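Thread title: Can someone regenerate the structure for this chain?

I was given the following input by a collaborator and told the matching structure tokens would be attached. They weren't. Posting the sequence so someone can regenerate them.
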Amino acid sequence: MPDTFDMNLVQRGARLRRSPYFDATRRHGCRAYTVYNHMFLPSAYDDPVKEYWHLLEHVAVWDVSVERQVEISGRDGFALTQLLTPRDLSKCKLGQGKYVVIVDQDGGIVNDPVLVRLGKNRFWLALADSDVLLFAKGVAAFADLDVEIREPDVSPMQIQGSKAKQVMKALFGPKVLDLGYYFFMETKLDGIPVVVTRTGWTGELGYEIYLCDGSKGDELWEKVMDAGRPYNIRPTGPSDIRRIEAGILNYGADMTLENNPFEVGLGWLVDLDSKADFLSRKALERIRRRGVTRRLVGIEIGGPPIEFNTTKWVVRAGGRAVGHVTSAIHSPRLKKNIGYAMVPIAHAKLGTRLKVETPRGERDTTVVRKPFIDPRKEIPKS
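Best answer:
Regenerated them for you:
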């Protein structure tokens, strides 16, 4: 297969790390990469719409090693992890995962990882694009906790799509089908140590395989491709179309340190009525009591299909700039332009009419309910 990407166009020294699957992604025709958590993230092998339909109809594999893990362990491992998140971790069983937000002392969102509980005092945080390891070390030092915080040799890939179960069964046998949504198991695949989780970033049926020996990346990749060949497996980039349809947020775009969980619709991850001791409790109690002044809403943008936004488009009401679009894209299935916008509470009511400045001119826009598809997550839980 001819080389499809010139790394010299991007590479700027060894500070940008390559995943254990990097050579495999090149070999299988990756055409574009972005940088995420100081690593190369494969972002496209084909047209994004073709990759979207393949995800829905078949099965896709993503190299998401950029979801760097922060491992917290030691005598005070539970105490530190609970300090970082307002979600009550006493309800997280061994062998279970939870979607959580990490929130600072002012109520700002630092990250929104998937947390897995490997032991009583041992956790992994599968991170979005921000430096949580340093934040966790700072909190641990300030709280004088007996913990070890490190980045382990762990590199996830995602197996997502309607035929994901068949591929996983071919790899791990029928036992993998017993995994509940957001649960995991530790196992080996022909001697390769892995953790398998029932999670993903698509809103589709899916799994993640966490490789625990980086030297085996190429070997694991080809085993997955061999097992998936009868089911038309294909490597793709992460699908922004599908994650927006599903109401999944992208840290850095749809929420940042400037946002609190309540204004981006993640208040359900805040357990203020629990006895849990977390760093952000006072700030989040104050925010809940006062209420938020802005909210991340779902929107439909009128007119012809739009391209995925690469900047935060201006939202106007009555000719005045009032907010910004965080993510927007055309859904081929819905035949609509959909997305999210951060707007003042006065403009957040369902049915509110707004204007959005796109690169192709101003468009009529309406505030709508999100998620746009499968609000009860029946597909990934199936």
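Residues 132-143 form the longest helix (12 residues).
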